[in-house]
């Protein structure tokens, strides 16, 4: 019986104390230079590159000191928007940095300075965007003085600034208000956004109305109702309807009905590419359905019930995401329970 522990290629010998005879081996040659490069040098270079990249990303995620270095660079005469863009990405991906009041304070002060000079609109735009990436509104300067990021963001909405700057400021206010889930009832921001929602160009009005939808208080609600009645831009009205729909406001009913109707959207969405048009219709319907679902969660079922026929039609949609969301809303309206 063979021993399973024995080496597989052992050969028997005449004497048990003698080692097994080895078969002839090929001659040994010195390795060539190319072989050495492939075996040792190239892998070593790969390892070095990996280490450098690791150290670079470690430095980017290294905390306040590295983030503050970005701020110092942004204050230089040679600063450009790319540094602000990189810093915004860094803030979004690091919760500790996103909660740093000193960093927020320094960037708030920087935005105020950029608004004073208005010498580089692209830089101003991206600095405004960075303020929306924070998970706090409690800013402090390096000396410890409190500084309010809402102030320069409202100022950046003024008509004298370029539209991209104003859009960036509105987007940052939207992100901060959305993070606080309706608890940010700031009259300064609501006033600035309301004026922008009425007097800005369509793209700007659309973002301003979107931002207002996340603010609490009766003033924001009244402006949204006025926009859904009077704004000539369809997508601005859609943003107002979604915001009011989340609150269960009956003023959103007619516009939400249009948003839920595939036939209506097919007529009004003017996109040549069939795929892009379908994607746009899907996005609109999902936003309307999610607004109704939020109203149901907040124990405001009447709006969803009034739109039940439109929701029922979407349970047969060819779009899986729309069909699934419509079924969720339908279950909520049928049971009367929160979702």
In short:
The chain has 339 residues and is mostly helical. It has a domain at 256-339.
Keywords:
mainly alpha; 18 helices; 1% strand; disordered N terminus; 339 residues
Instruction: Label the structural class.
Output: mainly alpha
- Cα gyration radius (Å): 31 Å
Oligomer state equals: single chain
How would you describe the shape?
Answer: elongated
With helices defined by DSSP (H or I, 4 residues minimum), what is the helix count?
18
Structure summary, number of beta strands: 2
Q: How far is the N terminus from the C terminus?
A: 70 Å
Overall pLDDT metric? 85
Q: Please give the share of residues in helix.
A: 55-70%
Main pleated sheet? 2 strands, antiparallel
Strand order of the largest sheet: 1-2
Q: What fraction strand?
A: under 5%
> Low-confidence parts lasting 5 or more residues at pLDDT below 50?
1-28, 52-65
Encode the helix/strand succession as letters: HHHHHHEEHHHHHHHHHHHH
How would you characterize this protein structure?
By secondary structure, the protein is mostly helical. The chain has a domain at 256-339. 66% of the residues lie in helices and 1% in strands. Strand 1 (139-140) and strand 2 form a beta hairpin. Helix 3 packs parallel to helix 6 (121-131), helix 6 (121-131) runs parallel beside helix 8 and helix 12 (234-246) runs parallel beside helix 15 (274-297). The longest helix is centred in the N-terminal third of the chain and has 28 residues, at 33-60. The termini are far apart. Residues 1-28 and 52-65 have low confidence and may be disordered.
């Amino acid at each position: 019986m063979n021993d399973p522990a024995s080496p597989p290629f052992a050969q028997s010998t005449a004497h048990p104390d003698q080692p097994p005879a080895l078969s002839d081996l090929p001659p040994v040659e010195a390795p060539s230079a190319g072989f050495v490069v492939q075996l040792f040098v190239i892998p070593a270079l790969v390892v070095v590159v990996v280490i450098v990249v690791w150290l670079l990303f470690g430095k980017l995620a290294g905390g306040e000191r590295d983030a503050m270095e970005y701020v110092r660079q942004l204050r230089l005469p040679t600063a450009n928007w790319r540094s602000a863009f990189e810093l915004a990405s860094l803030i979004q991906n690091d919760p500790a940095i996103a909660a740093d009041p000193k960093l927020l304070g320094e960037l708030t002060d920087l935005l105020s300075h950029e608004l004073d000079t208005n010498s580089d609109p692209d830089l101003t735009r991206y600095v405004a965007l960075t303020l929306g990436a924070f998970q706090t509104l409690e800013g402090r300067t390096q000396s410890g003085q409190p500084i309010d990021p809402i102030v320069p963001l409202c100022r950046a909405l003024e008509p004298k600034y370029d539209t991209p700057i104003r859009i960036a400021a509105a987007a940052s206010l939207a992100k901060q208000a959305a993070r606080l889930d309706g608890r940010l009832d700031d009259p300064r921001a609501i006033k600035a956004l309301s004026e922008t929602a009425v007097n800005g160009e369509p793209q700007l009005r659309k973002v301003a109305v979107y931002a207002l939808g996340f603010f609490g208080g009766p003033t924001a609600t009244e402006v949204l109702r006025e926009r859904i009645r009077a704004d000539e831009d369809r997508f601005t009205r859609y943003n107002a309807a979604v915001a009011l729909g989340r609150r269960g406001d009956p003023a959103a009913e007619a516009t939400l009905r249009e948003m839920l109707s595939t036939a209506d959207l097919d007529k009004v969405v003017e996109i040549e590419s069939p795929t892009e048009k379908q994607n746009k219709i899907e996005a609109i319907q999902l936003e309307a359905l999610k607004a109704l679902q939020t109203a149901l969660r907040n124990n405001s079922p009447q709006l969803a019930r009034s739109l039940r026929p439109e929701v029922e039609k979407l349970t047969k949609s060819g779009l899986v995401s729309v069909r699934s969301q419509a079924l969720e809303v339908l279950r909520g309206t049928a049971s009367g329970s929160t979702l």
